[in-house]
Amino acid sequence: MNCNILGAPVQDGAGRMGCEMGPSALRTAGLVGALRDLGHAVADLGTVAPTPVRPIAHGNLALKALPEISAWTAGIADAAYAASADAMPIFLGGDHSISAGTLSGLARRAAQTGRPLFVLWLDAHPDFHTLDTTASGNLHGVPLAYASGQPGFHGYFPDLPERIDPARICTLGIRSVDPAERQALRAAGVTVHDMRAIDEHGIAPLLGAFLDRVTLENGLLHVSLDVDFLDPSIAPAVGTTVPGGATFREAHLVMEMLSDSGLVSSLDLVELNPFLDERGRTATLMVDLTASLMGRRIMDRPTRSF
Ligand code: ARG
Ligand code: MN
Ligand code: MN
């Protein structure tokens, strides 16, 4: 497979500094080498730039860095569109606000191919706030709402060329949802597999059912992996840890199933804050998970063993 690596060192969408160093840490942990070892042709396209920042005022005075994140969203959307023409883009965050841009650019690309875009959101949080409902004001809490066409972004974030159908979005690993998000997710029809569902059913059947839907519609599949999807005991390098996350084995199983499916067309690796890491263990885990998604196996297995 041809892969395009793009760094998006955004940190203004998170509540604290450090995600700016995310792309460097993922590169230092050996991402490019791991992909090449698996036989992929990797082009590191370097660092994405925001468009020029212009002043934007909004009635929600809690919002932080709205002009900056709006400018990053525009720049990342253009880069995502360009980088997805003939290769699988892998976006190195940066906080999760980068996905406002990646999803926008990828939705525009998908529309051109005539195939529907599906999104698998691996996260403790659904990031489904609008600019009006976020109480923290941290814009890493809004990208999924923006990309699926929820109201109130016009004039503040770049207008979306194509919205992603909320019915084609599956969130997995969820365990921290704000009241406004809960209501909006339900109204929009987003699939929410919270940790309770994972405990009751196991992660494989939940993911398998979603992958079957992507297959049925011949869809493209974007995977957005937030570090806090993982349990903090194995992935401490994130500013928004929530106890009770995915285990090491659950996370690798998800990645191997995604690899088996052959459906994944793009990937975000987000929220890594290397300032909070312990000797690079979280960055290394993110690289190992990416390797599983891209074909690394313990033993050979038949396709779709689930
Ligand atoms: N819902 C909370 C907020 O809006 C947490 C969001 C965390 N998002 C993330 N990408 N880590 O502030
Ligand atoms: Mn997130
Ligand atoms: Mn999160």
Automatic annotation (TrEMBL):
GO terms for biological process: arginine metabolic process; urea cycle. Pfam families: Arginase. GO terms for cellular component: cytoplasm. Keywords: Arginine metabolism, Hydrolase, Manganese, Metal-binding. It catalyses: L-arginine + H2O = urea + L-ornithine. One of its GO terms (molecular function) is manganese ion binding. Pathway: Nitrogen metabolism; urea cycle; L-ornithine and urea from L-arginine: step 1/1. Its EC number is 3.5.3.1. It is an enzyme of class 3 (hydrolase). The keyword Hydrolase applies. Mn(2+) binds at H96, D123, H125, D127, D226, D228. InterPro entries: Arginase (IPR014033), Ureohydrolase (IPR006035), Ureohydrolase_dom_sf (IPR023696), Ureohydrolase_Mn_BS (IPR020855). Its cofactor is Mn(2+). Binds 2 manganese ions per subunit. Signal peptide: none annotated. Belongs to the arginase family. This is Arginase.
